[in-house]
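Entry for the shared binder. Reason: the reviewer on the internal report wants the predicted structure included alongside the sequence.
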Amino acid sequence: MHDVMSKGITLVEGLEKSKEPQLAREAIYIMWPSEESLTKMLMDFDESFRVYKAAHVFLLDRLPPVLVTKLQQSPAKKYIRSLKESYIGFLPKESRVFTLNFPDSFRLFFSPGSAGKGEMKTRIADQLATLCAFLGEFPTIRCNKAVAGVEDIAHELYKRLEDFKMQSPSFATDEGKNKSELIILDRGFDVVSPLVHELTYQAMVYDLLGIKRDVYSYEATTEGGGKHSREVILDESDPLWVELRHKFISDVIGEVREMVKGFADSKSKSPTASYDMSVKKLHQMIKEVPQYQKELSKLARHFSLAETCDKKLKAGMFDLCKAEQDLATGESETGEKIDSAMNLTTPILFDRKIGVYEKVRLMMLQLLFSEGEAKEGFAKLIQRVEIPPKERSSILNLACLGHPSVEGREGRGNGIEEQSQRAEEEGEGRRREIRRLSLDTHHSRHHGVSAVTEVGGIGSEGQTGREEQQLAPLRKMSRSHASSYL
C-alpha cells in the first residue's frame, strides 16, 4: 500500500464494494477479465448512478470475444479512456512462489463428472502461459503421465507457447542459458504433505494463528507506554521474516532471544551473560527505550508470533504432531516400524482438546497409511469420533485423488459423487504408486533417500521420444530435526 500511495493514489477499493460518487476523479481498474468483473465495472458507469469521471482498465489476461462484444455494446464504453491487456494471469506471493488464484480448480479437477473441466484446463494453461511469457521462458514441460488431466494441461500450455513464439520470434531466444523445466503435478502426487503439521515458523503461523491475506494482528506498545491493536503484513518487505520463516519454531525462538540480548547488550555498558525474555519484558524494554521502538517492535512481533505457536504446540498438539510424523514416515522417531495405525491414533481422536479439523487430518493420514484396509473398522471409528457429515465427506473423498475410500471404490453409501470410469480404470495400482511416492518423500527425511517418479516430456523432445525422466522429490524435509524438537 505504501508503494501505491507514493504514486499519488489515495484510495484503493475492492471491485465488489459499494462506492460513493466521485465524479471529479478518474478510476484505475485492475481486474481479471471475467464476466462478473466486467459487469461490476460497467455498473460503476451506469447513467443512473455514475461513480467516476472516467476509467482506465488494466486486464490481467486477454478479454474473451464475447466480453469484447459486451463492452462494445455497453453505454458505459464512452467513459473508458484506456484499456490494456497485460497478460499476467498469476499472482506473485513471494519471490519464488506464485498462485493462479483459482481455488475452484481443485474441485473441478478431482470431482468426478463435474462440469467445466475443459474450461478449467484451458484457463490454467492460459495462466501458466502468461507466467512463462512474463519470465521470458519457453521451458521443457514435464508432467505426470499417469494423470490424463495433467497431461491435457501440459499439451495445451505447449500449444499456447508455440503460438506465442510464432507471433513473437524474439521470445525466449537467449542461447546462453540452460533451458528451464516446468513440472506439472496434481495434488494426488503428494497427499501427505498438506495433512502433516509442519513445525517451521511460516507454516505454523499460517496453520495455527488464522492469518488471512498475510496480515497478523497483535497488541503493540506505544512510546508513552500505552497499548493498541496493530496489523502488520507478513511478506518479504520484512527482512527478519524472510530470514526466519523456513526455520524450525524452536530455532526461531532461540534466535530472536539472542537478537534481543545482542540488542540490549549493544545499548548497555555491562552486557549480561544470559537474558530471560518474555513478551511482557520486551514490551517493558520498548517503554524504557522509546528511541529504539522501531527495532524492538520488529523483534517483539516475531517473538510473540513464535511464542504463541510454541504454546499451542505444547498445549495439546505435541502427541498429534508426533503421530502425524509416524504415520507419514511409517516408522517412529527411533526407527521402529509402525504396525498399527489404529493404536497410534485412537487416544488422540478421542481427546476432547483436539479439534475436529485436526482429527480429520489425522484420520486421512491413517487411511493413507493403511491403504484402505480394515474399512469396516475405520467407518465405525468415524462414527464413534463423531465427525460431522461435511468433514466425513472430506475423508471419503480421498478416493477422488486416487486413494482408497473407506466404503469401496464404487463409493457405496458414502455420500460423495460416484467415482468416474477413469478412476475405476486406474485402480489400485495408481493408488499404491501415489501413496508410495508420498510416503517415500517423507521417508527420505530420515534416511536421505530421494524418491523418484517418471514424468513425460511435452514438446519437441517429448514428441520424438517421450523419454521417461527421473524426478527428485520437490520437497525434502529433515525428520531428525523436527523430531529433536518434539
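Summary line for the report: Residues 225 and 288 are 9 Å apart (CA to CA).
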